[in-house]
Amino acid sequence: MNPVLRRCACLPRPLGRGLARLNQTGRGILLVVDAEGRLLRTVTDGDLRRAVLAGVNAQAPLSTLPAQAPVVADEAASAEPCCG
Asked: Residue 84, Cβ neighbours under 10 Å: how many?
């Protein structure tokens, strides 16, 4: 499987399954995509930990997390404008 696809979680995926996928990848980040594969947001272990501490049910979909638009760059972009 493509290494990027291993980090993806399609909606609607419950928080608990997202956490399991996050643990499985060992990368600390999930790429949340829609049915067409468009990136909607990223989810980290911290996002899931805060949700659990706030009392969000593990069966609630990842979409219940606060909206957070991802920052993306074109393949040809230099790292400096993106990360500097």
From this structure: 6
Per-residue pLDDT tens digits for 1-19: 445 555 556 656 788 888 8
Tokens of 25: 């990848």
From residue 52, give the alpha-carbon distance in Å to each of 14, 37, 70: 12, 26, 22
The Cα–Cα gap between 59 and 26 comes to: 22
Q: What is the pTM of this model?
A: 0.70
Selection from 72, 13, 83 nearest residue 48 by Cα = 13
